[in-house]
TrEMBL record:
Organism: Butyrivibrio hungatei
SMART domains named among the record's database cross-references: PKS_KR
Catalytic site: Y155
GO molecular function: 3-oxoacyl-[acyl-carrier-protein] reductase (NADPH) activity; NAD binding; quinone binding
Keyword line: Fatty acid biosynthesis, Fatty acid metabolism, Lipid biosynthesis, Lipid metabolism, NADP, Oxidoreductase
Pathway membership, UniProt: Lipid metabolism; fatty acid biosynthesis
Entries under SUPFAM superfamilies matching the protein: NAD(P)-binding Rossmann-fold domains
Protein name in the entry: 3-oxoacyl-[acyl-carrier-protein] reductase
InterPro entries: 3oxo_ACP_reduc (IPR011284), KR_dom (IPR057326), NAD(P)-bd_dom_sf (IPR036291), Sc_DH/Rdtase_CS (IPR020904), SDR_fam (IPR002347)
Length: 247
């Protein structure tokens, strides 16, 4: 198994892309610390189902945009598991609108969760990675962070920031055997895209070279590769999973 005996932390790991990544990791032997914003029945159910794989799967409640909560939850996870090998920064939100219509809260919330949350969680675990002389960080960015998109100025900025952050961490910590890569998904069928009308989805699919929207598992497969030893000489990369959307 690719991740046998390893411990992975996944923010936003109870739904969508994060949950698909959690399943791939668990099936390949990883124990999981899943971070969610609230202690809902849905989140508990996700953890229970993942635990049926025989892995140690635990839920941690944390608002990733709050640096104090992030430090606290990182300490709790390290105390519970003893070590962390892989960090997947997946938590993200959208507040879409044209730029003049974006409120200050729309801008702040998206950047705070998507970008600052990624920075805070990475900062919280990187010292333990340095101490143990290994660590693997997979950041979930977006193809929108590479190409921009109408009505998503705040989201595009947050995801572009993740790309710059990924490259910087890769350069700062590569000599410490710590790798950091980013995945840039395109249109993936999750709760975020569920708000699109059927005709909008069909029109998007027509414009993609592969002719369809992606599935969370398409992103999860790449996350698994990046988290495992098969990608041991890859760091600082941004890899698109977008069906050819941005060629």
């Amino acid at each position: 198994m690719m991740l046998e005996g390893k411990v992975a932390v996944i923010s936003g790991g109870t739904r969508g892309i994060g949950n698909a990544i959690a399943w791939k990791f668990a099936e390949q032997g990883a124990n999981l610390a899943l971070i969610a914003t609230r202690d809902s029945e849905r989140n508990k159910k996700a953890v229970k189902e993942l635990s049926e794989t025989g892995r140690d799967v635990r839920l941690y409640i944390c608002d990733v945009k709050d640096p104090e909560q992030v430090v606290s939850v990182a300490e709790e996870i390290l105390a519970d598991f003893g070590t962390v090998d892989v960090l997947v920064n997946n938590a993200g939100i959208t507040r879409d609108n044209l730029l003049p219509s974006l409120s200050v809260m729309d801008i702040d919330d998206v950047i705070d969760v998507n970008l600052k949350g990624t920075i805070y969680l990475t900062r919280a675990f990187v010292r333990s990675f340095v101490k143990q002389r290994h660590g693997n960080i997979v950041n979930i960015s977006s193809v929108v962070g590479l190409m921009g998109n109408k009505g998503q100025a705040n989201y595009a900025a947050s995801k572009a920031g993740i790309i710059g952050f990924t490259k910087t961490v890769a350069k700062e910590y590569g000599r410490r055997n710590i790798r950091c890569n980013a995945i840039a998904p395109g249109y993936i069928q999750t709760e975020m895209t569920a708000a699109l009308k059927e005709d909008q989805t069909n029109e998007i699919a027509k414009q993609l070279p592969l002719g369809r929207l992606g599935q969370p598992e398409d992103v999860a497969d790449l996350a698994l590769f990046l988290a495992g030893d098969s990608s041991r000489y890859i760091t600082g990369e941004v890899i698109k999973v977008d069906g050819g959307m941005y060629v």
